[in-house]
Design brief:
11 helices; 26% strand
């Protein structure tokens, strides 16, 4: 059994808990949260602890699955935990990944632990597809389109703005640009050419909506590079009309081989972003425990982790080759 800690108990943490409870591979040592543990109840009877109590579990936990928001928490918490535990996280800010990788590599190596970062569907699965497509079709350039769907990371970033009660952000691909790329065009596209962002935001009474809208639209990495629409709605309307968390995405590349046009494409369509992201996290938590037991340490992205490790020693050749 792989003994895991779940760090954070939002949508992603709850989805990871449900997967772990239904699996024969995992045992949950506890859920570690910034909220008051006494006020939380798990439908599965899982024990809750304050987040900083996790350090009392050194030597007990095989893998800490980090399920906190990416806006600020993961980078700070990841480095802190990497000194004491093997970890898996779904940090999703592409522009900051290299810096985070360097920080985690130092912390994990110094602590003698194995830490997987950016493990989700993007970054994560889509990262692998981009690299694979670029390798086998070097004349093309991989493009990624997200949505239409809810981004948990972007929604969380909005919720952290003072005066915001709740928010949902939809990433929307620009259909005309997608078709241009599929036809072999699309050189020199910027982020704004490919996507727009739609935000539905409920705010406190008396909140400065103009200021909140400005903070959203100028947020580096998250919203500033895109055409962004902000819609202020009541909390009841937000929860009635925007309670689901679907998502979708496509990675594709077009290019010539010996004068012939070739196109490769990978897509997904999700009814629940957090549930699928949790599935990816837990699969890689299993791989983390397997590789850590073999003595591996340091930081890894999905590009560095063999697919065979997801099956922890099973005969993958017989099953898949």
């Amino acid at each position: 059994m792989i003994k895991i800690a779940i760090v954070g108990y939002g949508n992603l943490g709850r989805a990871c808990e449900k997967i772990a409870v239904g699996s024969k591979d995992f045992e949950i040592a506890g859920i570690f949260t910034r909220r008051n543990p006494a006020e939380l109840v798990s439908p599965y009877g899982t024990a809750f602890f304050r987040q900083d109590e996790i350090f009392g579990f050194d030597g007990v936990i095989d893998v800490a699955v980090i399920c906190t928001g990416s806006a600020n928490d993961v980078t700070e918490l990841g480095v802190k935990l990497a000194r004491s535990f093997n970890t898996v996280d779904s940090f999703d800010t592409h522009a900051r990944m290299s810096t985070y990788y360097a920080d985690m590599s130092r912390a994990a190596s110094n602590g003698g632990h194995l830490c997987f970062i950016g493990i989700g569907w993007d970054p994560g699965l889509f990262s692998v597809m981009r690299a694979l497509f670029a390798g086998v079709l070097p004349s093309g350039a991989p493009y990624t389109f997200w949505g239409r769907g809810v981004s948990q990371g972007h929604s969380e970033a909005i919720r952290r703005i003072d005066g915001v009660i709740d928010a949902k952000q939809y990433t929307v691909p620009k259909a005309e640009t997608l078709e241009l790329v599929r036809s072999g065009g699309g050189e020199k596209l910027c982020d704004r050419d490919k996507h727009s962002r739609e935000c539905y935001v409920a705010v406190e009474d008396g909140a400065d909506k103009s200021l909140i809208e400005s903070k959203i639209k100028t947020m580096p990495n998250y919203f500033e590079p895109y055409d962004t629409a902000v819609h202020f709605v009541g909390l009841e309307e937000l929860r009635k009309n925007h309670s689901e968390m679907p998502h979708a995405g496509i990675v594709l590349s077009s290019g010539e081989v010996n004068g012939k046009m070739q196109r490769v494409e990978f897509s997904l369509k999700l009814d629940s972003n957090p549930d699928f992201t949790a599935s990816v996290l837990m699969a890689y938590a299993r791989a983390n425990a397997y590789l850590a037991a073999k003595g591996e340490t340091g930081a890894r992205t999905a590009l560095d982790i063999p697919v065979s490790a997801l099956f922890a020693g099973d005969d993958v050749i017989k099953r898949f080759v």
